[in-house]
Amino acid sequence: MPLPHVPEFVQGRTRDMITKISSALLGAGYQNFIVGGSIRDYLMGIEAKDCDMTTDATPDQSASILKSVGMRIFNAESIGTTVVLDGKNQYEITTFRDCGKYEQKKYTKDILTDLSRRDFTINTIAHDLGSGTTIDPFGGTLDISRGILRTPGPPEFRFKEDYLRILRGIRFHAKFNFRIEDQTEAAMISHSHMIIPNTYAEVIRNEITKIFSLKNATIALQKMHSLGVLKNVIPELNQLLDSPLYRDTMEFLSSVVNSGGDWRQNFASVLRWLDLSTVQSILARFMFSKNDQVAVFSMVKNYKNVIASRM
Questions:
Q1: Same domain flag for 117 and 157
Q2: How confident is the model over 255-266, as pLDDT tens digits?
Q3: CB of 128 within 8 A of CB of 90?
Q4: Model confidence over 212-229: pLDDT tens digits?
Q5: Among 47-51, 64-68, 221-225, 256-260, which stretch is predicted with the lowest mean pLDDT?
Q6: Strand partners, 70
Q7: pLDDT of 78-116, one tens digit each?
Q8: Helix ranges, the chain (H)
Q9: CB-facing half-sphere around the CA of 225: CA atoms within 13 A
Q10: Same domain, yes or no, for 2 and 138?
Q11: Domain of 219: which CATH number?
């Protein structure tokens, strides 16, 4: 099997697994790239937590090849992804996609086409494990250096492929302190009403937990509100922020975040002025786990008790 060109920032057990996975795919005659967040984070001086790959092999082909070298596989063919299981760790290998909508499963043999369908330019940088070269067709490296968040190609097209990208973009804006490019921001505003009717509730829930896990959760919430995204995702919370309680809510969220609160505490802090029945409705609507619903609801009640004791 050919020895892949694994970049130096990939170390330890992850390096061993990437080498084994890539050797099998390259040896079978397929292309294989590291792509997206791990390269972005490396360029930003952030330790990469995940190392996702992409290939021109279909999920069935990838699964067959990787099983043949003794790997444990979960084949998520419905979303064009093969997942290699290694203890508690997972390695995702997606097939080059010719359409951003996962459920359409339209594949391509062209890496540039696949990159053109990704969410933001900062995630379109790819390292070729076969040749060792890095490709950056949409200027992602430059955008990282300038602190700009924009889509590869027209933002209207990218958001129509996956409306969750609007929330993800706001999270990146807050997490990295990047400025959202004007056309991209305008498209977020004009398409945010399509998030709820076109996105599974549990997928939105996962993004909500990531947003409220941020050290800059306050910035993310402010941006969601100012762009009109919040009114289309959690209208009850948006109505609260339209009221004189805006400043109190933001200041309290900031204090909870700064005190080391986890996403549950942070989320509860902004729900504390809402009726308990409304809080229950929001938690159920986005299909939070029973444990998370109980935890957040209890925290909201505690915050309310503190409010009541001060009145």
A1: no
A2: 999 999 899 999
A3: no
A4: 999 999 999 999 999 999
A5: 47-51
A6: none
A7: 678 899 999 989 999 999 998 655 556 689 999 999 999
A8: 12-27, 37-43, 59-68, 111-116, 140-146, 155-161, 164-176, 182-191, 195-198, 201-211, 217-226, 230-233, 235-241, 246-258, 263-271, 276-285, 290-309
A9: 19
A10: yes
A11: 1.10.3090.10
Residue 251 tokens, joined:
């200041």
- Nearest CA to 35 out of 160, 121, 144, 150 is that of 121
pLDDT, tens only, 157-199: 999 999 999 999 999 999 999 999 999 999 999 999 999 999 9
C-beta of residue 71 within 8 angstroms of C-beta of residue 21: yes
Which residue's structure tokens are 């299981």?
85
Q: Which of 84, 117, 146 is the last residue of a domain?
A: 146
Residue 289 burial (C-beta neighbours within 10 Å; 0-12, 13-18, 19+): exposed
Q: Give yes or no: residues 2 and 64 share one domain.
A: yes
CB 156 within 8 A of CB 191: yes
pLDDT 10s digits, 264-290:
999 999 999 999 999 999 999 999 999
Decide the pairing of beta strands 179-180 and 148-149: parallel
What number of residues does the chain have? 311
Structural domain count of the chain? 2
Tokens of 199: 């996105």
Q: Is the pLDDT of residue 133 over 90?
A: yes
Contact, 258 vs 250, CB < 8 A? no
- Residue 134: both structure tokens together: 């890095």
The verdict on 266 and 167 lying in the same domain is yes
